[in-house]
Amino acid sequence: MMILIKLLLAHFIGDFFLQPKKWVKEKEKKKIKSNKLYLHVLIHIILTSIFLWDASLWPIILTIGITHFIVDATKLLIQKKKTKRLLFFIDQLLHVLIIFICYYSFTESNFNLSYCITETNLLLVMCLLFLTIPTSIIMKTIFLKWNISELTKNNESLEDAGKYIGILERVLVFIFIIVGHWEAVGFLITAKSVFRFGDLKESKHRQLTEYILIGTLISFGIAIITGIIYLTLI
Question: What is the spatial distance between Cα 208 and Cα 120, in angstroms, rounded to a whole number?
Fold first, then answer.
């Protein structure tokens, strides 16, 4: 496990601490012709070598270096303004996945899938998934009774911001409950109330206030009930 931690640490330092923004901009402009791309890969190879400090693990160092170049170069070649954010996460996911593959392929560690696929873990994944899109659809169906477009007329907002805020708050509430920190749920409700207070005060719209309160209570209520059910079943 120590080797895996060292590999991940080398990756995070190389990708986020030792890669200035001007390098990123130059790579995006010149793509594979940029010398910063090759310097970036070299830094990863050097960091991985230093952290491992074991000549017998050279296949890991070589594999990570080559694959890092392939992944980064491919991303630069196909990247567009609209896909930049998506490709960033795919890029990081591939790097981390390759590190795990190298760890289990070139060390004596064995990966046993049965340790991951347990009843408790599957239940946890199911609860987390339920609190994202399914709950958002359920709440949207509930609020079909009211015309939210009229309530929020002339009030600019980020696209789908409410949906993502709701998903994040439900996931956080669920996590706080299963780790036994109910006080954090109260803190989260208070924090949201403080941020929302200004909007409600400015709007002077009783229906919008009631809509927000109902939505918040339903969202937190579903997350709390899901957390309690999870704790009861395990």
Answer: 40
Torsion of CA 6, 12, 15, 17, to 10 degrees: -110
Per-residue tens of pLDDT for the chain, all 234 residues: 788 889 999 999 999 988 888 999 999 999 999 999 999 999 999 999 999 998 888 999 999 999 999 999 999 999 888 888 889 999 999 999 999 999 988 887 766 666 667 888 888 888 888 888 888 777 777 666 555 555 455 555 545 666 777 788 888 888 888 888 888 888 877 777 666 555 555 555 666 666 667 777 788 888 888 888 888 877
Considering the entire predicted model, what is its pTM? 0.65
The dihedral over CA atoms of 115, 120, 121, 123, expressed in degrees to the nearest 10, equals 150
Cα separation of 64 and 19, whole Å? 17
Pair 67, 93: CB distance under 8 Å: no
Give the number of C-alpha atoms closer than 13 A to the C-alpha of residue 224, restricted to the C-beta side.
14
Task: Report which DSSP code applies to 33.
Answer: G
The 8-class DSSP code of residue 89 comes to H
Q: How many residues does the chain have?
A: 234
Measured between alpha carbons, how far is residue 159 from residues 57, 81, 111, 163 in Å? 48, 18, 41, 9
DSSP-assigned letter for residue 42:
H
